[in-house]
Design goal:
alpha/beta
Length: about 475
C-alpha cells in the first residue's frame, strides 16, 4: 500500500483599514487675530498634520474638514497619495471669520465608516462663538459614545498649545469615554504583533491497487476513532482544567517565597523591619525585581478596607537611561504632579483611577487614591517599542519577581490590567468565585495561597487604555472588593 500525505499551511493577517478625520479651525484666532487673542499655532498645526500623514503605515483614508464660522470644502485622499496631501496641507491659510465647532463636528460624524477603524482629531483653540450655544456644543460633544452607533471610533482634542487644555471642550474630552486630549496625532490602536493564523489542510491519498483494500479501510477506521478519542480527551482537559488545578493546588504545597520563610539569612520579614534600614535597602532584598513598585504611603490602611495591588503589563523605555529600577515610581510621581506636562499615556491612569473611585477626582483626591494602593508592572524587561508585546518567555521569567512582591506587601486583592496579562500569570493557585459584571456576564477570578495561609484574590479588567467605560468597571471593582 502506497500512502502519500501533503499538508499546506498559510498565514494571513487581517488588519482593518483606517479612516482619519481632521477638523481644522482656520479662524483668525488660530494666528492670534480677532476678538479672541490666542497663540499663533497655524504653522504648528500644518507641520503636525504633515507629520501625522507621513507617519501612518496602515491602509488609511484621510479626510480634512476646514472650518471657520462655516464648514469649508473638504479635501483628502488615501495613504497612496501622501505627498499630494502634504503639499495641500502646506497651502492651508487662516481666513477671516468666527468659530462654529458644532457644524464641523456634525459633518465629521456623518463621515464615520462602520467598515473601518475611525479617528476624529479636533484641532482648535476651543473658542466656539457661532452657531448653536456653547451649552449646546458641550451637550453635542458629550453624546459622542451614543453618536458613533456601531462604528469603531475614537475622538481626540489636539492640544496645540498648553493653554488650550484649560478650555471647557478639553475638559469634556478628558472625561468622556473613547475621547482623550492628546499632543500628537501619531496614534494607532491596531497592533501588528498579533497574528491571525489560517490553516488549510490538503490531503492527497494515493493507494496502490492491490488485494489489501479491505485492511486499508479498517486501518483508516481505527485512525479516525483514535483522532476522535484524542479530541474528546483534550476537550475534557480544557473544560475541567480549573477544577483539576484546584485539586492539585490543595494537594501540593505552593513553593513561592513567603514572608518570614526565606532560607537566606537577612531576607525574612523580621530582618526587613529592623530599625535603621532604608527603603532602598529593603528593595535590594527582592532579588528578581527590576522595576520597583509604586507603594502609596497609606497602602497599609488600604482602600475600601482592602490592600489593593494594581498590576500593569510592561514598561516601554525609549532611552537606555530610562531603564532604571525607579521608573514606575517616577511615572506615578509625575502623574500626581499638577505642574507636569500632560502626555497621552496619562489618560490610561486617569480612566483607571476614576473606575476605582467612581468619580472624577481633583488633584488632592487623586493623590489620596494613588497613595492608598500599590502599582507594579509585571514584566521585568523593558519593551523596545510602544506597540511591542512581551514574549511568552518574558512573562514566565517575571513570575519570581511577582511572587516576591506579593510576599513583601501581602495585598488582599490584585487588579490586573488586561486579559493578555491575566492569561500569562503563573498557574499556581486555584480558580476563585466567578464575579457577575454589571451587564450580567461573568468574570473569572483567581486565588494565590501563600504558605502562611494568606489568600490573594486576582481579578482581570479591560485594559483602561482604550474603549474603557470607567463607570461600568467601577461597579465591577466594587463588587469584587466585597467578595
Amino acid at each position: 500500500m502506497l500512502l502519500t500525505l501533503t499538508v499546506s499551511m498559510s498565514v494571513a493577517k487581517d488588519i482593518m483599514p483606517e479612516k482619519r478625520i481632521y477638523l481644522l479651525d482656520l479662524s483668525g484666532s488660530m494666528i492670534g487675530q480677532g476678538s479672541v487673542r490666542t497663540d499663533n499655532v497655524l504653522d504648528k498645526m500644518k507641520s503636525d498634520l504633515a507629520a501625522a500623514v507621513d507617519w501612518t503605515s496602515l491602509p488609511t483614508e484621510f479626510v480634512f474638514i476646514p472650518f471657520t464660522d462655516r464648514v469649508m470644502p473638504e479635501f483628502g485622499g488615501t495613504d497612496t497619495k501622501k505627498q499630494e496631501l502634504m503639499t495641500e496641507i502646506s497651502s492651508i491659510e487662516a481666513e477671516a471669520g468666527n468659530t462654529d465647532i458644532a457644524s464641523a463636528w456634525e459633518c465629521a460624524l456623518e463621515k464615520l465608516d462602520s467598515t473601518k477603524v475611525n479617528y476624529i482629531f479636533l484641532l482648535t483653540d476651543g473658542y466656539h462663538n457661532r452657531g448653536i450655544s456653547k451649552a449646546g456644543l458641550n451637550s453635542l460633544v458629550k453624546s459622542w459614545p451614543q453618536s458613533t452607533g456601531r462604528c469603531d471610533a475614537e475622538a481626540y482634542f489636539v492640544s496645540l498649545s498648553p493653554k488650550y487644555r484649560t478650555s471647557e471642550i478639553a475638559r469634556i474630552f478628558d472625561e468622556t469615554d473613547r475621547m482623550s486630549v492628546v499632543e500628537t496625532m501619531n496614534i494607532c490602536r491596531q497592533t501588528l504583533d498579533v497574528e491571525q493564523t489560517e490553516q488549510q489542510l490538503d490531503n492527497l491519498i494515493t493507494v496502490a491497487p492491490d488485494d489489501t483494500n479491505k485492511s486499508c479501510s479498517l486501518l483508516w477506521l481505527w485512525i479516525l476513532i483514535a483522532i476522535v478519542l484524542i479530541a474528546l480527551i483534550l476537550w475534557a482537559i480544557v473544560y475541567w482544567w480549573p477544577q483539576i488545578s484546584a485539586v492539585f493546588a490543595r494537594m501540593i504545597p505552593i513553593s513561592k517565597p513567603v514572608s518570614g520563610q526565606s532560607s537566606k539569612p537577612g531576607t525574612g520579614t523580621a530582618q526587613k523591619n529592623k530599625p535603621g534600614k532604608s527603603d532602598k535597602d529593603e528593595d535590594k532584598e527582592d532579588k528578581s525585581v527590576h522595576f520597583l513598585p509604586w507603594v502609596g504611603k497609606n497602602y497599609k490602611q488600604g482602600i475600601y478596607g482592602r490592600r489593593v495591588l494594581v498590576l500593569g503589563e510592561s514598561h516601554y523605555c525609549a532611552r537606555q537611561e530610562d531603564d532604571t529600577p525607579y521608573v514606575t515610581r517616577k511615572v506615578i510621581a509625575d502623574l500626581l504632579d499638577p505642574n507636569s506636562e500632560h502626555e497621552a499615556y496619562k489618560n490610561t491612569y486617569t480612566k483607571f483611577e476614576r473606575a476605582l473611585a467612581g468619580k472624577v477626582l481633583d488633584w488632592q483626591e487623586k493623590a489620596e487614591l494613588w497613595n492608598s494602593i500599590i502599582f507594579y508592572n509585571y514584566v521585568q524587561i523593558p519593551m523596545t517599542g510602544p506597540r511591542i508585546s512581551p514574549t511568552v518567555e518574558e512573562f514566565k521569567d517575571s513570575a519570581q519577581a511577582f511572587f516576591e512582591v506579593l510576599d513583601r506587601y501581602c495585598p488582599d486583592c490584585v487588579i490586573v490590567w488586561g486579559k493578555r496579562l491575566y492569561n500569562n500569570l503563573p498557574q499556581e493557585g486555584c480558580q476563585g468565585p466567578d464575579l457577575q459584571l454589571p451587564d450580567g456576564t461573568f468574570q473569572e477570578t483567581w486565588i494565590y495561597t501563600l504558605t502562611g495561609g494568606k489568600r490573594v484574590h486576582v481579578m482581570p479588567i479591560l485594559h483602561p487604555s482604550s474603549g474603557f467605560s470607567w463607570d461600568f468597571w467601577h461597579e465591577a471593582i466594587r463588587r469584587y472588593l466585597e467578595l
